[in-house]
Amino acid sequence: MKIVNVEFKKGGKPYKFFDNNIELEKDDNVVVNTERGLQFGKVVSIENDDNNDHALVYKKATKDDVKQNEKNIKEASTATTKAQEIADEYGLDMKFIDASFTFDRKQLVFQFLADNRIDFRELAKSLAAIYKTRIELRQVGARDKAKEISGLGPCGRKLCCSSFLSDLDSVGIAQVKNQNLALNPTKINGLCGRLLCCLNYEDSLYTEYRKGLPEVGDKVKVEGKDATVISIDIPRQKYVVITDEDENKIEVDAKKEKEKNENKNRKEFKKNDRRKGNK
To answer: What is the DSSP letter of 279?
Structure first.
């Protein structure tokens, strides 16, 4: 059997399923078995068996299945509004952002934002009485809200989280420091108020470019003079020093310096090798 990658929401995280020997192509709608029950999704890619254990595709979706899914989406949207009304009646400080039925309607999952932990037991009972199905309430973060709503980032393009990022990995202040960025919230935070996602997937390149670069404040020798590093430019792999003796500023190309030292060491090695041969 082949593996099909299925997403349940546009731009959402794809999940792997065995194709169950059903002839499928990319962009086909399918109904799949999950821990939550039957789910409706779309095939985004197909690959060979990876020898891992996966759930099965239940069937290729029919026109009636597509209509049922559209009905579920419409009613889930109405359920979001209803849940917010009931939460307000109970005085619960929570903001619902979306809801979704499983394809077989055995479960209705709500996602909400809240600053603190919420006791939503009575709310869940009320919703279960209305929709006659299992209710699950999930508290999510600001990143999930931004992914759902979307918008334009500081780069002028659609938010990464709502366009191509399927996994919202955590981003830490270590990435900011590694990329030598100023700790200015207006520069390093996204629309969600959290650190920019792009800091994460650019970090490995900055780590690579940092190799061979000194830190600000390091003492180095440049052109035979003692100097102190006052700034570094990671993408260009250059740094600026100020000499201790005459306080001149000098820009150093770390890449060229590395090549020069390697050539020097290579010449020294050949020179010593010839001396040994002469002996």
So the answer is: -
